Amino acid sequence: MHHEHIHACPALRKEHPHYDCIFINADVDLEGMRGMSVAEVLTFFSFTYRAIIHIDSIYSATHLIPIYSSQFISLNLQHYHNYNSFHKFYIKYADHHTFKIAS
Q1: In the 3-class helix/strand/coil scheme, how is the chain assigned residue by residue?
Q2: For residues 103 and 57, what is the distance between their CA atoms, to the nearest angstrom?
Q3: CA-based nearest residue to 57, from 82, 84, 38
Q4: Which residue among 42, 61, 69, 82 sits deepest, i.e. has the most Cβ atoms within 10 Å of its Cβ?
Q5: Tens digit of pLDDT for each residue in 11-26?
């Protein structure tokens, strides 16, 4: 059985936030990435929320690499701001599970 740790921490080790990205089964009738959505996990349990994703619809964690444009990147940009600072991403094929999903 395959298992993963998905983080949603506002202050990892009392330093900076750590919110993982996940693949979500959005449409089971479509194959591969066509049926998937990507989301950033901000919390698992809350009484106030913006969107609800059933935990059974999470397929796996993923890592996204920003697509940099030709403009300069601010020296003040921190790595934990990447998902909010960029609009397009590459999927990091670091493991065979991610490669299988995206292929």
Answers
A1: CCCCCCCEEEEECCCEEEECEEEEECCCCCCHHHHEEEEECCCCCCCCCCCCCCHHHEEEEECEEECCCCCCCCCCCCHHHHHHHCCCEEECCCCHHHHHHHC
A2: 19
A3: 38
A4: 61
A5: 867 788 888 888 888 8
